[in-house]
Amino acid sequence: MSDHEKTTAIVGMGALGMLYASQISASLGPDAVFFLGDRERIDRYSRTPFSINGRPFSFRIQDCAKALPVDFLIVAVKYGALPSALDTMAASIGPDTTIISVMNGIDSEEIIAERFGQEKVLYCIAQGMDAMRFGSKLTFTRPGTLYLGTRTNGQESRLKDLTGYFDRAGVSYKVEDNIVKRLWGKFMLNVGINQTCMAFETDYSGVLAPGKAYDALIGAMEEVIALSQKEGVGLSEEDMAFYINLIKTLSPESVPSMRQDGIARRYSEVEMFSGVVRRLAAKHGLMVPVNDMLYEKIKEIEAAY
Which of 96, 121, 204, 261 is deepest in the core (most CB within 10 A)? Predict the structure, then answer.
């Protein structure tokens, strides 16, 4: 089967879902990719004028109850929506479907694999993009890169099929040998940048300027380093410096997903970040005062909605 005949379904019509749908559609045609949704979402989105970087864009949306198995499925939902997303995507998963998650955090792959099988789920980290969605409008200057890797033995052919597809779909990727460390590195970055931007109500330029926000950024990431060493992953100060430099390459006025949530008065993914840090820290007897502070500050912001 050629890549023009293969199909990709996406669950989650946020910034990353729209970003990858637009890339695949532009390279392989609009029939190559669609979003999954229930009838209510289909009716609502059919009346919604979407745009990407100011240009009108339309997306295919398919009834999840009537969907057939697809070749590839991308999970791009918020952490709190993952349980319902598993039901939404169930009919689209067949024996040969390969699943990747572009969600933040370190446990979405395991949650998906528990439902649909370890063999179907590859590791994936979305990194380096500055995509922002407000309402039905997506803007970005950097599309970023997907870092990919296998999770279990025997997945090499799935990874080869996916990378070949991405080559022709125009999706930037890299195959990562130490994918677990990369996953934890992105987790460290998000624990720092996402939470700090939301808690201090600032953008990338604001959090990088000397002051309380920058101190919180560094402190939160250092606590993940200590935790990673207890978990056998072994992040270092050198890894933190790499991700701080990565932030500096993004548009200074852009904001990460949690700050977008705060602006839109949506409940955030704080449980996936400091919530997970706090639970794992308790297991190892570690103190994480910066993540405690960020957790409480973000919960206060959300309580005022």
Answer: 121
